[in-house]
Specification:
Layout lengths: L7 E3 L6 E3 L3 E4 L2 E6 H19 L1 H17 L1 H24 L1 H14 L5
Antiparallel strand pairs: 1-2, 3-4
Length: 116
């Protein structure tokens, strides 16, 4: 029996069918929310924390999280290496597909109502 592999998925946040690249990897599959929905959810959670506890408490919470990651040098180094690798991959992608990248930027600026 052959498995049917789809390259699209329904986001349970916005109810829109999107390409799998629009979802974070989650174990062996993909997350239930698309990346823009996750971003919006995180912003709402952060705004709620700021409203309930104040901006100073949120900044202190973030400092604590950052300090905890620096306390474990292995995890911190892995995170830094992953960030560097992602940035290098993105730079290579932009360089190798310059026209496609510029077209996507123009589309996003147009959709956001920004000058092209």
């Amino acid at each position: 029996m052959t498995a049917i592999v789809s390259s699209e998925k329904l986001c349970s946040g916005c109810d829109v069918v999107k390409n799998l690249t629009e979802f974070h990897k989650n174990g062996a599959g993909r997350a239930r929310l698309c990346k823009p929905c996750v971003s919006a959810l995180n912003k709402r959670r952060r705004d709620k924390r700021i409203t309930e506890h104040g901006i100073d408490a949120e900044r202190e919470r973030q400092r604590t999280v950052n300090a905890r990651s620096r306390e474990n040098p292995e995890v911190y180094a892995r995170h830094q290496a992953a960030t560097l690798a992602n940035n290098l991959a993105l730079r290579r992608l932009r360089e190798n597909h310059r026209e496609e990248y510029e077209h996507m930027v123009r589309e996003e600026r147009y959709a956001a109502g920004l000058p092209i």
